[in-house]
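I have a small job for you when you get a moment. Would you make up a two-line entry for one protein for me to read? No commentary is needed, just the two lines. Write everything out right here, beneath this request.
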Amino acid sequence: MRPIALSVACGLAVLCYVGLAKQPPTQDGPYHVLRTAKVGGAGGFDYVGADSDARRLYVARSGPSPRINVFNLDTLQPVGEIAETSAHGAVTDSRYHHAFGSSKPVAMWDTRSLAPIKKIDVDGRPDGMLADAYNHRIYVLSHAAPNVTVIDANDGKVLGTFDIGGAPEQAVSDGNGHIYIDIEDADSVAVVDANTMKMTGKYDLNGKGGGNAGLAIDAKNHVLFVACRQPQAMVMLDANTGKYLADLPIGRGCDGAFFNPKTMECFSSQGDGTLTVIKETNPTTFMVEQNVKTMTGAKTLALDSKTGHIFLITAEYAAPANGARRGTMIPDSFSILEVGK
């Protein structure tokens, strides 16, 4: 996932992008934007991460002053930052109270005090991350080899690396020793053994979707939700076999997905300013429950498992000038959106 830079698409370019997009109709439903916190600050952005146990929200910012901003998950007030850290995002491990940023080297800090613990040398280009509670390991995803670096969440030791034959985007765990990783440029999902740290299989989307950039899982019923950009679809697969179950339309420019087992809903965030909510009525039947209007550019999301609220990030941009393809970010327009019932 590329971070949104200071000059990332908006203005005329984005207006054309959104205007030409074939979007599913926005439907009335229980979800809406509860609040928008314009927290400001300079720099690009990519992932947003929620620590539901410690009640913190992590937002990595790039640019001249790279850092990871930390907010109170309940009030969205700033509580600190991880300074001088150029990362795409952050994940946390609740057992050891440790957090990790997808920087190079990988940053490690204490989630309670925000005090730095160490820097972890890794190869590749760290992008997405997964914290797996099954055996408390951190998976660092990279589009360059090695595709995956595995780190011990306790001491920060690098346990190993492996490739999956393509560019990884989002990873999920079933909590029972299986990791699934989106392979964006191969239209497939890698299956990984969490104990051996080896890829054991690959599920092809077989033309139902491609450019898959979001991945979520219903671990209880063994359903994978694969959010795809071409075509704009959510493809459901059997996590045990890779069998195709169904596909449904989503908005344009997806870059993340989460499943809430309490409500049996999967959420997909899109850069066209929509949040698609897909309801799982049973393990083989699904429906688009709602398309929530958010803001253009709000393409990544985080789920607060305690409240069921979704958090998204974006900013406002000026129209491009003097023939430029992209506009510049309006100062202090960076915002956090909270969506809920």
Q: What stands out?
A: The helical segments are 11-20.
